[in-house]
Specification:
This protein has about 290 residues and is an alpha/beta fold. The protein contains ten helices and twelve strands. Helices cover about 35% and strands about 25% of the residues.
Length: about 290
């Protein structure tokens, strides 16, 4: 059932998501005192959303989709008891930034990497009006000193996109990875938005270097994870790349490689509606060959 809802990601950035496919509410999971994960309770509400609640400020990590942000804010306000102060966008896709204009109208300040804002400006589906664009951007890293913790926001280069931001809550030992982690799902590596397989692998290795056995990781999609989960997902991606490279080096073309099904070993556990085993294979081929 979980993968059925993630299949809706393929259409989540459009206005054509049917009402019966959307959640009726957002549910919450507290992963550390004052830090929550919010997701659609009975439908696809967008990517996982992080929520930091404390005496100083209320911070959202991403704000879901235009069609679900109202439900998201209802849930966040109920938990926090007051409006959202900041939203940190982890990257440019509409299932993570689609609610920007809505939350900005409520007074929130939107923060993102420079490249995310640059990619949003010419896109009418994302640059929907005043407030939709991040008003505070950074090139490498920025730290929020709030609620008795340090929220260290840092750029991960050319991974899922070219504007990925992840957040380490230093004292709480929580990492919000954005879409640099799809937990037990083949990852969407957006080659057309500056992402790369090698950058994605390097990005996950960077996250691993920050984690220990007690670290809680909030992935962009999939269940809340541990360092061991991230290690498993990374090993799968590295092995998948190796399996495809063997066939590329043999001179097989893309269709021949797909027919050979080098990722069959991972199909049952990682295939899903948006990034199928075939699409993951073709992403690896394109990344390795440039075509």
């Amino acid at each position: 059932m979980r993968k059925f809802f993630y299949a809706l990601l393929a259409i989540s950035c459009t206005s054509h998501v049917l009402a019966q496919q959307l959640p009726t509410a957002f549910k919450s999971q507290e992963v550390s005192p004052g830090i929550y994960v919010l997701e659609g309770e009975d439908g696809f509400g967008g990517g996982n959303v992080g929520l930091l609640v404390g005496d100083d400020y209320v911070v959202l990590i991403d704000d879901a989709m235009y069609s679900t942000v109202g439900l998201l804010i209802d849930a966040a306000t109920q938990l926090a008891g007051r409006p959202v102060d900041f939203v940190i966008n982890t990257h440019v896709h509409g299932d993570h930034v689609g609610g920007n204009e809505f939350v900005a109208d409520l007074g929130a300040i939107i923060v993102a990497h420079d490249n995310s804002r640059k990619r949003m400006i010419p896109d009418p589906q994302l640059n929907t009006g005043p407030g939709a664009l991040p008003v505070l951007t950074f090139s490498d890293k920025v730290t929020f000193h709030i609620n008795g913790d340090e929220a260290f926001v840092f750029h991960i280069k050319n991974a899922h996109t070219d504007g990925d931001a992840a957040i380490l809550f230093r004292n709480a030992n929580v990492i919000a990875a954005g879409d640099v982690m799809f937990n037990y799902l083949f990852p969407f590596i957006d080659l057309d938005s500056g992402g790369s397989v090698s950058g994605y692998i390097a990005g996950q290795q960077k996250l691993l270097a920050m984690a220990n056995d007690e670290t809680v990781i909030i992935p962009g999609h999939g269940p809340v994870a541990s360092k061991a989960d991230l290690e498993t997902n990374l090993k799968v991606l590295i092995d998948a790349k190796t399996r495809v490279k063997v066939l590329v080096d043999k001179g097989l073309n893309a269709d021949e490689i797909v027919a050979a099904n080098p990722l069959a070993l991972y199909h049952d556990d990682y295939n899903w509606g948006f990034i199928t085993t075939e699409r993951m294979t073709r992403t690896l081929i394109r990344s390795l060959t440039g075509k």
